[in-house]
Design brief:
Aminopeptidase, three-stranded antiparallel beta sheet, 5 helices, globular
Length: 167
Amino acid sequence: MHETERLLIRPYTSDDMTFLESLVGDPRVVRYIGNGRPRTKEGARLFFNWNLSHTKGDDRLGLQVLIEKDTGEKIGHAGLVPQEIDGVMELEVGYWIAPDHWGKGFATEAAAAFKDTAIHQLDKARVIALIFPDNMASRRVAEKIGMVVWKTMTRYGKDVLVYRYTR
């Protein structure tokens, strides 16, 4: 388990399925993620397995559960996942926060921790974040942790900004 000032961060387990279903099934949360459509219980299970496939036994990889220290409540997930950009595998820092916890700085806190993990522990020269242009909250998080727009690409038929932090 990892921690920041206000968060405990740990890998997903099967005991987290109900929480994951609530997160990936909430249209407000997934509005700017992937195809923008909420997932069913089966979709949550597929997402869980997809995420597990990226950990490769390293608890610094994959999306991980964020738990607010003060309350013990699961409030979202964040982590490092591979993304192919122009034929090159990059490491993306991702962050999803449940709507009840938006605007409290948790995404920035988690994203900064995972960016630091990628740069200082995994010795990556850079990390990226894929963000839809109208997702201003997520763009602010990326900018707060030192990322800048590198390029624009198309995903799911929509333009996506590729933010990048370079060591």
